[in-house]
Amino acid sequence: MPRDRSAAVIGTDGLDALIRVLAAGGRTVIGPTVRDGAIVLAEIAGGDELPYGWGVELEAGHYRLRPRDDGAAFAHSAGPQSWKTYLHPQRERQWTADRGADGAMTVTEDDTPPSSYAFLGVRPCDLRAIAVQDRVLSGGPHTDSRYRARRERAFLVAVECTEPGATCFCTSMGAGPAAEPGYDLALTEVVDAGGHRFWARAGSEEGAAVLAELPRRPTDGATETTARERVAEAADRMGRTMPEVDLRLLMRDTLQAERWHDVASRCLTCGNCTMACPTCFCTTAEDVTDLTGDHAERWRRWESCFDLEFSHLPGGPVRASGHSRYRQWATHKLGTWYDQFGSSGCVGCGRCIVWCPVGIDITEEAHALNEERAAGTAQGEAPS
């Protein structure tokens, strides 16, 4: 029988070769690395920059690095950034305007060529988040051409989860630690008596071509079986859960619940949850000028529904209270996102829990709302 070119086993040398092959193909390789007391995403040039031997300790409002004895490279959960940072940048110039000697203004659209990225270490939750942003930013009638250009040029190397964090709940959101379609290459890390290796599978023709350039050996039953078992075990060890109910109906039925007042008393409306979220996409426009007034620029930057100015109209902000802003964020993420885009806006990565400075936990809030509804004290709100 012909050898299956879509799957193989690679070692740590193969992982290093993968980075170098992608870079040699003109791509900017972005992957996890240890910096400033966290595992962050940054440009990497070789496998020695990966976080071998580092894991993370997570809880609500808590993040710490911890050393590992097994030397694993990807046995850590989502860090403070997501791939949104590169596909949908936090700040991006849209155009410049210059006044000439004759007083006429010339407006020039910023046409900086998009980067060609290779993302190494895309978790299944983040793979789903990229798919969600694809629907939002390039799947409708109002396509973000810059996002689409970056996305079409991106090469995705997914890494399946074998050790979920204490704040992970992807299985509750219909996903899981196993990678769904959408990747170019998928890796599952195995460290045992048989050595340190990765079960690699191609998900695209380009992925198969890259895999063929790496030092590799055919897939063996022991590695594949162990890889599958580790991922299946991870699905049963999620640190958090959502209530097993229709979250759209839960959000609709509890719009007047007392629990919103409780969470509002704790929420700082800082917007950290929206900045860390891999699917939040809202932006605003910012115009800047030099002191002469002869040069101006328009920049697009991330915006948050927790910002008081986010819903400002001539009569004032529509959502003036922290109560209304938190409720808007949660009900949109878990409920009305379906109405707009056909899926949930939450992928269960847990970043909003970890990076909330006061430790607000969206899963805890959902369970509390469900309990209040079950007790018959929560009330919905008739649509206007």
Tell me what the structure shows:
- The chain has 384 residues and is α+β, with helices and mostly antiparallel strands.
- It has 2 domains: 222 residues, no CATH class; 128 residues, no CATH class.
- It is 32% helix and 24% strand.
- It is built from 12 helices and 15 strands.
- Helix 7 packs across helix 10.
- The termini are far apart.
- The mean pLDDT is 94.
The largest sheet is: 7 strands, mixed
Write out the strand line-up for the largest beta sheet, numbering strands in chain order: 1-11-10-9-8-2-3
Strand content: 15-25%
Rg, Å, rounded: 23 Å
The low-confidence parts are none
In terms of quaternary structure, the protein is single chain
Distance separating the two termini: 64 Å
Which series of helices and strands comes N to C? EHEEEEHEEEHHEEEHHHHHEEEEHHH
What percent of residues adopt helix (DSSP H or I)?
25-40%
**Count of β-strands:** 15
Mean pLDDT score, rounded?
Answer: 94
Structural domain count: 2
Note the total helix count. 12
| Structural classification | alpha+beta
How does the overall form come out from the CA principal axes?
globular
Could you give a quick summary of the protein structure above?
By secondary structure, the chain is an alpha+beta fold.
